[in-house]
Amino acid sequence: MAICPICNGFEKINAKCSVCGKALSDNGRIMDYYGNYSPYMPIDQLKLADGYPTDYTKKECPHLLKCVACGHDEVKFIKE
């Protein structure tokens, strides 16, 4: 089983907004926003149904990033 270095606190995301260039804030795994119980479901199970066809096969963790200035949302794939 692969682990995400961001989810486990080994690293931090330093990314800039593609719209305004300001800092992006990491809001966690995108799958955590799918429903009330999604944060408690097995990660690999959610990856099979999250709409990103390669995150399971390439062992990537999709994180939701939000711009603190303009509110733009982006998904960034983190190598596990």
Question: How would you describe what is shown here?
Answer:
This protein is 6% helix and 26% strand. By secondary structure, it is mainly β. It has a three-stranded antiparallel beta sheet, with no helix packed on it. The longest helix is centred in the middle third of the chain and has 5 residues.
Name some characteristics of this structure.
single chain; 80 residues; mainly beta; 6% helix; 26% strand; globular
**What is the helical fraction, as a range of percent?**
under 10%
The poorly predicted ranges are none
Order of helices and strands: EHEE
- Based on CA inertia axes, which overall geometry fits? globular
Radius of gyration: 13 Å
Largest sheet: 3 strands, antiparallel
Concise summary:
This protein is mostly beta strands.
Explain the layout of strands and helices.
Layout: E1 24-29, H1 43-47, E2 60-67, E3 73-79
Antiparallel strand pairs: 1-2, 2-3
